[in-house]
User: What shape does this take?
Amino acid sequence: MTGSTARGCAAGAAGITALNAVTYADMALRGRSAGTIPATPVATAGARTGHPVAAGATRDNRLSNLGALSGIAVGTSTGALVSLARGVGIRPPARGGLFAGAPALAAAGLPLACISDPRTWSARDRAADAIPRLCYGLTTYGVLSSWERRR
Assistant: This one.
């Protein structure tokens, strides 16, 4: 089980790298800045637990970085969960990328839905949110599958 978890974390790390690459490419092509949405749940959690995240520019920088780190944590832990699910026999062959990408989309989307109303998003905004997560899922599932083929 430890080996499966470690493989899943590594596959999730590869997936989150793909997600970030696609996201940054979209930002470069559209000329948009990084969003502040990933930092918002971090700020909310800090305030609710009585541990606010500094003040001023230090706060903004810290929240931005903690938001990015939380994305990495979600990506690696989702990879571990997908690997564990595969270990107990859950292996959708044709839709593996969707199987791996769905938890990442949910983990990112649920806090986002508390901050923003997805019903008001344009098709372009929806695609900018979904496509990187699909790339995450395809990469994560592909890495896990390739390790299994080698055994």
About this structure: The chain has one domain: 2-34+69-150. The mean pLDDT is 84. The helical segments are 2-30, 39-48, 56-87, 96-115, 123-150. The longest helix spans residues 56-87.
